[in-house]
Every structure is written in C-alpha cells, then in structure tokens.
Amino acid sequence: MNKIREILQENPVVAAPMAGVSDRPSRLIAREYGCGLVYTEMISAKALTYRNQKTYLLMNMKGEQQPVNMQIFGSEPDVMAEGARIMQACGAQIIDINMGCPVPKVVNNGEGSALMRNPELAAEIVSAMVKAVDVPVTVKFRKGWDDASVNAVEFARRMEAAGASAIAVHGRTRMQYYSGKADWNIIGQVKEAVTVPVIGNGDIFVPEDGKAMLEQTNCDGIMLGRGALGRPWLYRQMTEYLRTGGYEGEPTLEQRRQVITHHARLICEEKGERVAMKEMRKHIAWYYKGLPGAARMRDAINTVATMEDLEHLLEISLDGRI
User: Fold this and answer.
1) CA within 13 Å, CB half, 78
2) Using CA atoms, how far apart are residues 157 and 267, in angstroms rounded to an integer?
3) Considering Cα of 10, then 13, then 101, then 147, what sign does the dihedral take?
4) 30, 45, 233, 272: most buried by Cβ count inside 10 Å?
5) pLDDT over 80 (residue 219)
C-alpha cells in the first residue's frame, strides 16, 4: 500500500512547509498537538550538493516522530537527484519537491512555481529523483501560474506518471500569492484525475474548514498553513473535530503563555538564545494576533534579549500590565 496513503488514513491533518517557519521546534510542537504529517522548510538542492553546513542544519530531525517529509527545491534534474540522495543518507523517509513557492528570488531561478510553466522539466525532475532514492517522492504545486494558465490537473497527471507517490495542491495561482480565495474545486479535479493520494491546501482556518474541504474535494489530506501560525492547537482541534464532531475552544492566556515559553525554549536549544529571541518576534505576533494588547506586545518583544526577559514579558502581559 502507498505509504503516504496509510499515514493520511490514520490522520489526514498535515502541517504545510513554510520557509522560516517549519523548523524543527515548530514541527515538534505540531506533532505534540496531534498533527499527522509535517514537512521541513524548503531546502536548496544546490546548497546540499555544495555541502553547505547551514543547509545541512535544516535537515536536523533529532527526537522527531517519523516520518518527516523533507522538502527540496531546484530546477536541474541531476542536482535534484543528488540532493535527494543526500537527504536519504541523512535520514529522510519521504522527500517532497517544492513546485509551488511564488517568491521572486525562487521563481526567477526557474524553481518553485516557475516549474508549472515547464511541465516537461518538472516531470524530468520527479523521474530523476524517483530513480535516485528508495523513499517516496511527493510534489507540492499550485493551481497554475495565473488565471490564463490553470494547469493543475494535467500537471498532476504528469507528476504521477513520472513516479510521484503523492501530490499536494494549493488552490491559488502563483500570481495570487496568498491573496484572494483558494479554489477548492481545482483540488477536487486533481483528486479525480490521479490515483495517488492528494492533499488539499488553502484557506483552512477553523476545524469546520478542514472537514468541508475533505467533503467537497474528496482529498486524502488537509494541509494547514497560515491558519496554524501562532495557533498550533488548531491541529488538535482539527483531529478532534474530524473524529468526534466537536473540539475544545481556544486556549486561555495562561495556556498560551505555556506554549510560547515551550516554543521559545525549543528554539533556544536548536539555535541559541540570541537567535531564538529574534525569531520569537514573529511568533509572538502570531500567538497574540487578535488579542487585547497585541500591538503593545509586538513592540515590547523587540526589546527582549534573553529567555528570562521573555518569561518576564509574558508574565506581565497576563495581568494586563502591558
């Protein structure tokens, strides 16, 4: 049986790969909250072949529940194949190809979602990687490049024919970036067009969204991206809702404080206290989004330099002194 299908049948809730977000601390927390499958940040195939040590650190999966889907990006079949071999040697049990990233510095190199404009090359990349490794190779892409070139269905067929074991589809075009509304219909069309598992991505912000996507598209998994930023409990709410039809409400301020503290300590262990406090600035903005005093908290976190400072800030934020 398809390994990815087995994972999704057990738990269809998936954490999206997000650059600058999906590091080991965030993946550990997602798993703690019941996420069924996590991805690494996208990792440069070329940097791997150059033996770039910072890039190798992105593959650290120490203490993580397996499998972790290790995501790679690039545009040269031989380099991608070599990168995949390195990933497998470093413990990857699933390797995903990023064909959906919309940012200019990636797209301008012919990588990420630019590959949707060159399906032949995309298929060559998948084929080369499948031949190079013994683990499943999956692909994540978008609805298309723009509204005039929506090709997700045909693209998905090509990826399956080239040997992809699963497909994740973001229901927006590259030109949309993350604006507008995700097109769930295209996800359903891709699901009908291929036999491998399909993971739907786009506009899942509450548990009801996830269930609706599963029902409307018949997809095998649901991928949470921006909806889970600063809200890792959404993974638990989602799994509970799919299983029982109900779920716990939002956490208390004290519970949030505990999660934030835990997250910060994990980053300290991974990257050191100085880097961790800088990274916590964006995480605090997400954790406090929509709460009273969120703007003041975003300002205050910029002055935090140590874990002790952060813990003090979180304490005074609980009793309204910030």
Assistant:
1) 0
2) 40
3) positive
4) 45
5) yes
Tens of pLDDT, residue by residue over 244-302, are 999 999 999 899 999 999 999 999 999 999 999 999 999 999 999 999 888 999 999 99
**CA max distance for the chain:** 59
Sequence-separated (6 or more) residues with CB below 8 Å from residue 245: none
Token duo for residue 112? 């990420």
CA atoms of 96 and 133, how far apart (whole Å): 12
Cα 319 from Cα 322, distance rounded (Å): 8
Catalytic residue IDs: 101
> ∠ at Cα 22 (124, 33), nearest 5°?
120
Selection from 154, 147, 96 nearest residue 120 by Cα: 154
Cis ω for the linkage preceding 104 (within 30 of 0) = no
Q: What is the pTM of this model?
A: 0.96
48, 50, 53, 54 alpha-carbon torsion, rounded to 10°: -70
Residue 150's SS3 state is strand
